[in-house]
Amino acid sequence: MRKWIVFAVVAISAVIISASASAEGEKYTAKQIMSKSNGGPKSLVKTIGAAVKDKKVDWPKVQAAADELAKLGEAFPTTEPKKGDKDSFVKLATKWAEGTAAVAKAAKAEDAKGVETAISALGKQCGTCHMAHR
To answer: How open is the CA angle 34-128-125, to the nearest 5 degrees?
Structure first.
């Protein structure tokens, strides 16, 4: 019986904490941002890149994913690097955030080539940051 009471208290606390975090806006770690944006075939970058190559682009889908990517980009410079100098990380993360905003801007303009160019530019930034901070 005591275990059930403890379990119920923990479960209720988790729900309350989760609800308050959602109300304040989600906080992500650098790893979570990178996983969601670049982590595998269902990541935002892969989804957007594949979608703009279709003959008939689903722009509302691309724009929603690009907006989500840009929001993650905005949050990225506020996270902590796994290693390395914080100032260096903020500089590189801010540049990456500007790149995510460029993806969203091109998607809003329904510019498939612009989206591809912006995604390509994002990809070229990975190595420098990863070597110093991952």
So the answer is: 60
Q: Which CATH number fits domain 28-133: 3.30.70.580, 3.30.200.20, 1.20.120.10, 3.40.1180.10?
A: 1.20.120.10
Terminal CA-CA length for the chain: 46
Nearest Cα to Cα of residue 86 among 31, 132, 40, 19: 132
Angle between helices 86-108 and 59-75 (to 10 degrees): 160
Instruction: Report pTM.
Output: 0.78
Mean pLDDT of the region 30-39 = 94
- Rounded to the nearest 5°, which phi and psi values hold at 57? -70, 130
- Which of 11-25, 72-86, 112-126 is predicted with the least confidence, judged by mean pLDDT? 11-25
The pair of structure tokens assigned to 29 is 């770690």
Instruction: Give 49's contacts (C-beta < 8 A, 6+ positions apart).
Output: 115, 116, 119
